[in-house]
Design brief:
The protein is mostly beta strands and 276 residues long. The protein is 4% helix and 24% strand. The strands form five sheets. A seven-stranded antiparallel beta sheet has the order 9-16-10-13-14-15-17, with no helix packed on it. It has a four-stranded antiparallel beta sheet with strand order 7-6-5-8, with no helix packed on it. A two-stranded antiparallel sheet has the order 1-2. Strand 11 and strand 12 form a beta hairpin. The radius of gyration is 22 Å and the shape is globular.
């Protein structure tokens, strides 16, 4: 888990870096746990573009991740650490005693040959084990957290992320999320012990536009470089400021720093402290 930098043999190589993939132990995915991922190019079911600047990218299979881990109290052996092109984190291949296999997000410190378990009762506190918040010791770092019981991991799944269990009060738990927000969860929500692996992913520099295209991102043109008919920022003779009170989207809606969360959103009652 580190960064590899090459000699500047070309302008694109000069500023680029890649992961060294030293933790990867298996190059091909498990065939029973992959499905074809259809490219949508940012379009909805009517073929209309709903997300701009998307398209292209390399073909890839989607790895089916077991975010719920409902095989309780059955130890599973880690047989491989694999690369997943659909996420920044690495994934671990588990094999249960009945030969069933499953993928999970690989935390820091999880190695091939170890055993992990998902349990709703007391279990060893070590990276990879999945337990309810009510059993996890206060102050422990966690990831793959459920928003509500039995929904599966929805939070803290990207490389290098972790949350901290701050307090347990009756049937609720207070968790400090990576954003700095402190939020109340139901104590029966499941979470995985440890920090998500591949923390150096944030230091990778793509170095050239081509690598961005491989990820499925198309070029983005500045609004102020367009004509008035194409964008609210467009027009003017030469290089002009946008000439508005605040930046706008192509549709004319406020952008950049504008709060979009509803003031009376039903889940506001769960937030104890807002993010920084």
């Amino acid at each position: 888990m580190g960064i590899r930098v090459y000699n500047p043999t070309s302008p694109g190589r000069r500023k680029s870096s890649v992961s060294d993939f030293v933790e990867i132990t298996k190059s091909e995915p498990e065939k029973s746990l992959i499905v074809i991922k259809k490219q949508k190019a940012g379009r909805n079911n009517q073929g209309k573009i709903t997300v701009r600047h998307r398209g292209g990218g390399v073909k890839r299979y989607y790895r089916i991740i077991d975010f719920k881990r409902k095989k309780f109290d059955i130890p599973a052996k880690v047989t491989a650490i694999e690369y997943d092109p659909n996420r920044s984190a690495r994934i671990a291949l588990l094999e249960y005693p009945d030969k069933e296999k499953a993928y999970i997000i690989a935390p820091v410190g999880l190695t091939v040959g170890e055993e992990v378990v998902s349990s709703q009762r007391e279990a060893e506190i070590k990276p990879g084990n999945r337990l309810p918040l009510s059993i996890i010791p206060v102050g422990m770092m966690i990831h793959a957290l459920e928003l509500f019981p039995e929904q599966g991991a929805q939070l803290i799944r990207s490389a290098g992320l972790s949350a901290q269990l701050m307090a347990l009060e009756g049937n609720t738990a207070q968790v400090k999320l990576p954003s700095g927000e402190v939020r109340t969860f139901i104590a029966s929500c499941m979470a995985t012990i440890g920090q998500v692996g591949n923390a150096d992913n944030r230091h990778i520099r793509l170095g050239k536009a081509g690598r961005k295209r491989l990820l499925g991102w198309r070029p983005s043109v500045r609004g102020k470089a367009m004509n008035p008919v194409d964008h609210p920022h467009g027009g003017g003779e030469g290089n002009q400021p946008i000439g508005l009170k605040s930046p706008k989207t192509p549709k004319g809606k406020p952008a950049l720093g504008v709060r979009t969360r509803k003031k009376k959103k039903w889940s506001n009652k769960f937030i104890i402290k807002r993010r920084k």
